């Protein structure tokens, strides 16, 4: 079930969402199969923590890998992926269901790799959900910054 605060946000922005059997969209490949879209159209929401302890959420296309050196340009210093328990504590969402909506006090970046797709699909707070949106709309409604962190 999509968290109430996320559903409210999605309704407010007229964003269509989908729910599936629990755990069925936990990976980009699984989510793409459920939605019948390219793996790259699935939005991975990745939480990083830099050396100063600041967190950054970076959204990337599901078929891309992240470059550590490129992430460093975004996070100012070397950064590592947050641990699953850290991700849950900081974002309120578990791995496989991390969504960029309703997250406070975290800078959000949207990788340019998502611009390749007309529609992109981040999770809606569970590992059994997806939201239909676009690269441009993510930048706008999240007040996010565009970045280039993929290889």
Structure write-up:
The protein is α/β, with parallel strands linked by helices. The protein is 26% helix and 21% strand. It is built from five helices and seven strands. The strands form two sheets. It has a five-stranded mixed beta sheet with strand order 4-2-3-5-7. A hairpin with a 4-residue loop joins strand 2 and strand 3. The longest helix is centred in the first third of the chain and has 9 residues. It is globular and about 40 Å long.
Q: How would you spell out the order of helices and strands? A: HEHEEHEHEEHE
Rg, rounded, reads: 14 Å
Structural class of the secondary elements?
Answer: alpha/beta
Biggest β-sheet: strands ordered side by side in the sheet:
4-2-3-5-7
Number of helix segments?
5
Task: Please provide the count of β strands.
Answer: 7
Helix content: 25-40%
Please state the oligomeric state of the protein chains shown. Answer: single chain
N-to-C span: 34 Å
Amount of beta strand: 15-25%
Shape: globular
Topology:
Blueprint: H1 4-12, E1 17-19, H2 28-35, E2 43-50, E3 55-61, H3 68-75, E4 79-81, H4 84-91, E5 107-111, E6 129-131, H5 135-141, E7 145-147
Parallel strand pairs: 3-5, 5-7
Antiparallel strand pairs: 1-6, 2-3, 2-4
Identify the notable features of this structure and list them briefly.
151 residues; alpha/beta; five-stranded mixed β-sheet; two-stranded antiparallel sheet; 21% strand
What's a concise summary of this model?
Helices cover 26% and strands 21% of the residues. By secondary structure, the protein is of the alpha/beta class.
